[in-house]
Specification:
It is a single chain. It is built from nine helices and six strands. The protein is of the alpha/beta class and 229 residues long. The protein has two domains: 138 residues, HAD superfamily/HAD-like (Rossmann fold, 3-Layer(aba) Sandwich); 84 residues, Orthogonal Bundle (DNA polymerase, domain 1), CATH 1.10.150. It is globular. One of its GO terms (molecular function) is 5'-nucleotidase activity. This is Noncanonical pyrimidine nucleotidase, YjjG family. InterPro entries: HAD-like_sf (IPR036412), HAD-SF_hydro_IA (IPR006439), HAD-SF_hydro_IA_YjjG/PynA (IPR011951), HAD_sf (IPR023214), PGP-like_dom2 (IPR023198), Pyrimidine_5'-ntase_YjjG (IPR052550).
Length: 229
């Protein structure tokens, strides 16, 4: 599909525009200090990051709910580094993590440049599986909310990417057809395959250089989107 028919671009937020891992690490550093958790931060993050991704996969597949995700990813991480932390403290950490996370707002390199490049040419939107209240905080505090005409979260729709319903809802909210739309996101299953399934074109933001099928459009830096758009 040629990009000359594209009028609307949908972005994922976490791991695509908003540098989740960097912001998350800074948040953990703060809440561990607040609660006097004597943990080696790099060691914790090394186990936490893959566990968190696994929990999000379960959440995406409706196998766990939001409280289970928030508690389980921390509990599992502490268990894996053989650190005993009470459920009460884990729940406090979980709450503080969500509250403090939007205070750190590093975006990926080139985020503002590419948004400024795209905004005069296309209508821009967000589709995210992240929690509604947290995602709006991230958009506001990182100063990118004004770039987007609509924001669709999985909690608004009741389903998560790659479920077709969230894409249909986002398209309806934006008032655009799938054939005139493009999705950009880091997750092959949720963002790329989910979009293609409902007729949106898609580009994978392949920040980690994962080996992808040759027919998947991909960039490793946001500025490379200019070659497609």
């Amino acid at each position: 599909m040629g990009t000359n028919s594209i009028t609307d671009i949908f972005f994922d937020l976490d791991h695509t525009l908003w540098d989740f891992d960097r912001n998350s690490a800074m948040t953990f550093e703060k809440i561990f200090r607040i609660h006097n958790i004597g943990v080696d931060l790099p060691e914790f993050l090394e186990v936490y990051e893959p566990i968190n991704l696994e929990y999000w996969k379960l959440y995406r597949e409706d196998k766990i709910d939001k409280p289970s995700l928030r508690y389980g990813r921390l509990k599992n991480s502490f268990d894996k580094i053989s650190m005993s932390v009470s459920d009460e403290v884990i729940n406090l950490l979980s709450e503080d993590y969500i509250n403090y996370l939007p205070e750190n707002n590093f975006l990926f390199e080139g985020a503002f440049e590419i948004l400024n490049y795209l905004k005069p040419k296309y209508s821009l939107h967000i589709i995210t599986n992240g929690f509604h209240e947290v995602q709006h905080g991230k958009l506001d505090k990182s100063n990118i909310a004004s770039y987007f005409k609509t924001v669709t979260t999985s909690e608004m729709v009741g389903v998560k990417k790659p479920n077709p319903l969230i894409f249909h809802h986002a398209l309806e909210l934006a008032g655009v057809k799938a054939k005139n739309s493009l999705m950009i996101g880091d997750n092959l299953e949720a963002d790329v395959m989910g979009s293609l399934e409902v007729g949106l074109d898609a580009i994978c933001f392949n920040i980690h250089g994962t080996e992808l099928d040759s027919n998947v459009k991909q960039v490793s830096n946001l500025i490379e989107l200019k070659s497609f758009l």
